[in-house]
Amino acid sequence: MEALYLLCSIVSTCFTSLALSLLLPVHALLRWLYGSRAGAAACESAALYEGTVWHERRRPVRHSFQYAVRYALIDLDRAPHAPPGHLSADEARHFADTNGPIFLLTIPPSVGYEQNPLSLYYCYDIKGATQHLQKCIAEVTNTPWGERVLFVFSPNSDLVAKPLHVSPFMDMLGNWSIKANAPEDNLFVAISVQHPKLGNYFTATLKAKRVSSSTLSNHATFFWLMPHKVAIWIYWHAFKLWWKNVSFIQHPRNTNPRYREEAAERDRGLRCCEAFHLDGMKDSAPNRTVSDSSSGKSHIDRCFVWRDAKWPWS
Questions:
Q1: Rounded Cα distance, 194 and 190, in Å
Q2: How does pLDDT run across 163-221, given as a tens digit for each residue?
Q3: Distance, CA of 253 to CA of 233 (rounded, Å)
Q4: Strand pairing class (147-153; 199-211)
Q5: What are phi and psi of 116, to 5 degrees?
Q6: Considering the domain boundaries, does residue 309 fall inside one?
Q7: In percent, how much of the chain has pLDDT > 90?
Q8: How far out from the chain centre does Cα 258 lie?
């Protein structure tokens, strides 16, 4: 039944995207003729990045690929409205326990479709007349299961127990090593999987450069079919891994209803954070930086928040 629903969703999205693509020239013409204050405000609050996503799996078989991507870095405090399905600036500040600007790195929807395996919130703190990147919020979405998890991490480098089944060719064991730089002219994000048996067997990176938005008259054209391309790459390389006889692992919710709680317990076991399982944002306690008097080090008082995301082709 799920396979049939997925197929119907793909067909429906294809027709919708085709129809909306045909309307793009009309939309661009109307904007040129009459202008758009909302569109201009949205453009002013977003920086555009173009770069490459690279994946490398080293065990049990070698498999690597890369593809070109385009991202928007949205100033959530200046944006006319929060992008649908994402946190607002105030929600992100509460979640990360910061007091400065919030920027969201994401691939905007294009012609009726959105696909974001990873979106990042860059959370700044203001001290006096200066501001610095204090924390990041990862917003990880899996496909085709339609789940999403949010958690805070230190951008300098952090180790997080894997909380989400992101691939049918990876189990839930191990940790994510994750880091990100402050986005300026260049942007960098790296995630590797530290597995108890396979070791450091998988790495994914995003490297991107800022492009001049002044040369673009229409952001819709810049991101045209970008989410679709990401989805196609995901499914195509999943097929190639299956073809290479990599073991297929079903979603843990079918075999272990406590997989989320166990991920939180593993995260606590890292001795660098304290994890909580919460069902929503409204009652969530903020993540705080806590000092350990015995070691003199600081750690993030982390909470995982799981949410339902959209069906992958809707």
A1: 13
A2: 999 999 999 999 999 999 999 999 999 999 999 999 999 999 999 999 987 656 578 88
A3: 25
A4: unpaired
A5: -135, 95
A6: no
A7: 57
A8: 24
The two three-digit tokens of residue 26, written as one number: 């009309």
- Comparing 29-38, 242-251, 298-307, the range with the smallest average pLDDT is 29-38
* 10 three-class SS: helix
Which segments of 181-297 are extended strands (E)? 186-195, 199-211, 277-278, 288-291
**Residue 303 belongs to some domain of the structure:** no
CA distance 37 to 74: 17
Q: Which domain holds residue 66?
A: 2-248
In single-letter form, the type of residue at position 131 comes to Q
Give the residues across from 70 on adjacent strands. 50
Tell me the chain's radius of gyration from C-alpha atoms: 20
Q: Is the pLDDT of residue 98 over 50?
A: yes
pLDDT at position 287 is: 58
Three-class SS of residue 235?
helix
CA pair distance 118, 86, nearest whole angstrom: 12
DSSP letter at 184 equals S
Reference 180, options 198, 200, 154, 202; nearest CA is: 154
How far is residue 10 from each of residues 5, 144, 150, 213, 245, measured CA to CA in Å? 9, 11, 27, 32, 26
What is the rounded distance in angstroms from the CA atom of residue 162 to the CA atom of residue 195? 10
- Return all residues near 145 (Cβ < 8 A) that are at least 6 apart: 165, 251
Q: Quote the number of domains for the chain.
A: 1
Q: Report if residue 128 sits inside a domain.
A: yes
Q: Determine, yes or no, domain membership for 277.
A: no
